[in-house]
Specification:
The protein has one domain: Lysozyme-like (3-Layer(aba) Sandwich). Strands 3-2-4-1-5 form a 5-stranded mixed beta sheet. It is an alpha/beta fold and about 210 residues long. The protein is rod-shaped. The protein has 7 helices and 5 strands, in the order ααβαββααβαβα. Bound molecules: zinc ion. The site of zinc ion has 4 residues, from loops. Zinc ion binds next to loops.
């Protein structure tokens, strides 16, 4: 092969490799242009709706609370119902029929857990409406001067719902202002009687921290 033919052949190979490089580069550019990141659409089951905004409970019962003249109260005593599902009516029936208490429901207020009444719903007991002694503390001083609030639930096993706690904070704060009850007199039932009430999971110090704000 003459030097001329060899040079032409080499020149042809160089051109071919340049062509291939151009085609490959063009291919890469086109591929990049076509690329779209994968859209991740959450599955329906995995979608968690944001929590519902808390609706204050006191305004709903304010008219009923405000038309009462309150007598002297010194303490607020917190209880749990030690049951999973209850409300003021079911506990009133139990206290009348099983315990034989003619004034019925031993507590002044009941806060529901969403089972037999609304989650966080505050029910006013007859003893508060008539401003009479409670039957909740197992102790004369605290029955006579203690406002009994019962949260539905068994807090030895479960926890109060977040909404229940927010209603409790609201109610205790209201009663403190209304009846001039000092901070140190907000107590749990087990402070005055040998009982587990309101259960080992009741967040007493969390409640006090909120009330102190
Ligand atoms: Zn109790």
């Amino acid at each position: 092969m003459s030097w001329y033919n060899k040079a032409r052949q080499k020149d042809w190979r160089v051109r071919l490799s340049v062509w291939w490089t151009c085609i490959f580069t063009l291919f890469l550019v086109l591929m990049c242009g076509c690329y779209k990141p994968e859209m991740r659409i959450p599955e329906r089951e995995a979608f968690i709706p944001p929590p519902k905004p808390f609706k204050p409970q006191i305004p709903k019962i304010a008219a009923e609370l405000e038309r009462l003249d309150t007598r002297y109260w010194k303490y607020i005593v917190i209880h749990h119902s030690a049951s999973n599902a209850d409300n003021a009516a079911s506990m009133d029936k139990y206290h009348r029929e099983v315990r034989g208490w003619e004034n019925g429901l031993g507590y002044h207020f009941v806060i529901g857990n969403g089972s037999n009444s609304g989650d966080g719903q505050i029910e006013i007991g007859c003893r508060w409406l008539h401003q009479i002694n409670g039957a909740h503390a197992g102790n004369d001083e605290y029955n006579q001067y203690g406002i009994g609030i019962c949260l539905v639930g068994n807090f030895e096993d479960d926890n109060p719902t977040e909404v229940q706690l927010r209603s409790l904070i609201e109610l205790v704060h209201y009663l403190q202002q209304r009846c001039n009850i000092p901070f140190e007199n907000i107590i749990m039932h087990r402070h005055v009687k040998h009982t587990a009430c309101p259960g080992k999971n009741f967040p007493y110090y969390e409640l006090l921290a909120h009330l102190a704000q």
